[in-house]
Design goal:
- With 151 residues, the chain is of the alpha/beta class.
- It contains 5 helices and 5 strands, in the order βααβαβαββα.
- The structure holds 1,3,4-trihydroxy-5-OXO-cyclohexanecarboxylic acid (DQA).
- The site of 1,3,4-trihydroxy-5-OXO-cyclohexanecarboxylic acid has 10 residues, from loops.
């Protein structure tokens, strides 16, 4: 069974309370529950993890090699700043989809640039909690179409 690692970056533990006008009312547990339901219908495993620390996220990406076939990541503010996270994803070569709750392109200019997007399969931004479900589906479809092409 395909296994997908879902990483939530800094401040996403505060979802539900944090600027709900921008990020919605769903808590991180609500999002993880939504992902688990989606995983059942897609017949994949999801493992979810949140950290506020860049190095912890880097370690989690390294540890994913050989255990998870795909990475779904909302790197939060590290999206816009972290060469280390981008390098970690490039190093392990795990197909990655980037997601954001808010539409980062309609917000402050410093959010318009993602360091992760150029090495990701694609990015889903602006659909609130649905961004995660859509991202998971897109990632799994990508992995399955790739393995069909190889067989
Ligand atoms: C975010 C967008 C980022 O710019 C911000 O720093 C976040 C959340 C989102 O999901 O919309 O923490 O990644």
């Amino acid at each position: 069974m395909l296994s997908i690692l879902v990483l939530h970056g800094p401040n996403l533990n505060l979802l539900g309370k944090r600027e709900p006008g921008i990020y919605g009312k769903a808590t991180l547990s609500d999002i993880d529950r939504l992902l688990e339901q989606e995983a059942v219908s897609l017949k994949v495993e999801v493992v979810t993890r949140q950290s506020n620390h860049e190095g912890v996220l880097v370690d989690a990406i390294h540890a994913a090699a050989g255990h998870h076939q795909g990475l779904l990541i909302n790197a939060g503010a590290y999206t816009h700043t972290s060469i280390a996270l981008r390098d970690a994803i490039s190093a392990v070569q795990i197909p990655t989809v980037e997601v954001h709750l808010s539409n980062i392109y309609t917000r402050e200019p410093f959010r318009h640039h993602s360091l992760i997007a150029p090495i990701a399969i694609g990015q889903i931004s602006g659909f609130g909690a649905d961004s995660y479900g859509l991202g998971l589906r897109a990632l799994v479809n990508h992995l399955r179409s790739r393995s069909d092409a190889q067989s």
